[in-house]
Specification:
With about 130 residues, this protein is an alpha/beta fold. It has one domain: Beta Barrel (OB fold (Dihydrolipoamide Acetyltransferase, E2P)). It is about 30% helix and about 35% strand. The chain has 3 helices and 6 strands; from the N terminus they run H-E-H-H-E-E-E-E-E. Strands 2-3-4-6-5 form a 5-stranded mixed barrel. The longest helix has 21 residues. It is elongated.
Length: about 130
């Protein structure tokens, strides 16, 4: 009987821990401090020189990247055709093409075909 109660308690505790781990709060990139502050040119060159090292260094980290807007759409900005930034809100009315901007976001990978670094959950920093 004592063994059964111990097993039930362990299962309940394991279930609670598992539930809390699975349903934990998501990261709020907007409130995080950027791990790296880098120009578009430097970021793109680090990926072109050694993609594996750059991936290890930047992947899933919050970075702040500075450069000129080359393309803009309702929810995305491309910086100098090298960094693709995806926003959760519409940004088309906020900023124009050819403007110098500082964007903070989470690195989600590198597109070998387009040779672009991909960021998501981006925000435009006014600093």
């Amino acid at each position: 009987m004592r063994k059964l109660i111990t097993i039930i308690i362990v299962l309940v505790i394991t279930s609670i821990i598992g539930y809390n781990y699975i349903y934990q709060n998501h990261r709020d990139i907007e409130k995080e401090i950027a791990t790296f502050k880098i120009t578009v040119t430097d970021l793109a060159s680090s990926y072109s020189k050694n993609p594996n090292a750059a991936e290890t260094k930047y992947l899933n980290n919050t970075i702040e990247v500075f450069g000129m807007i080359s393309e803009i759409s309702p929810n995305t900005i491309t910086l100098e055709d090298k960094v693709f930034c995806q926003f959760t809100n519409s940004i088309e009315h906020i900023i124009k093409e050819k403007a110098q901007v500082r964007i903070k976001g989470r690195v989600i990978g590198y597109d070998d075909l387009l040779e672009q670094v991909k960021l998501d959950q981006c925000t435009i920093n006014k600093k």
